[in-house]
């Protein structure tokens, strides 16, 4: 059995490398995700999500999407933000906006949290779809309004508000 993984191990895989190096890292992460150690800090979903990013950076869009979907379905603690944000980002970057919107709508129907709404807003902002980006910040604000005080993380709310402000500025709209 392998040694337990820490978040430092996961962080050490981040950064830009050659496509082959990204592919090799993805293979390592997939192998780690296939053998759960009871003392691992990162969850299976988090390992799979990181592998998905490496596959995307290696230029293997379809494999990245498949691994992100595996992460979304993995048992245990989910990756944050929801990996459907990553799927939408990869689809948008590969010129598949209709599929990306379908994935975003799927996430919307699950009553996503504030962090997920912020992430999806940033995905659409990066793709220069400011209408969808603003929509996702509005969905996030609705989640904030429906939450009780003990359910709110002020850092998450601040990030949402910062993202919303940036998007409104890009749209030429005044601050809220």
From TrEMBL:
Region (Disordered): 1-20
Pfam families reported for this sequence: TPR_19
Transmembrane segments: none
SUPFAM superfamilies: TPR-like
Gene3D superfamilies, sorted: Tetratricopeptide repeat domain (1.25.40.10)
Biased amino acid composition, Acidic residues: 1-12
Protein name: Tetratricopeptide repeat-containing protein
Natural source organism: Klenkia soli
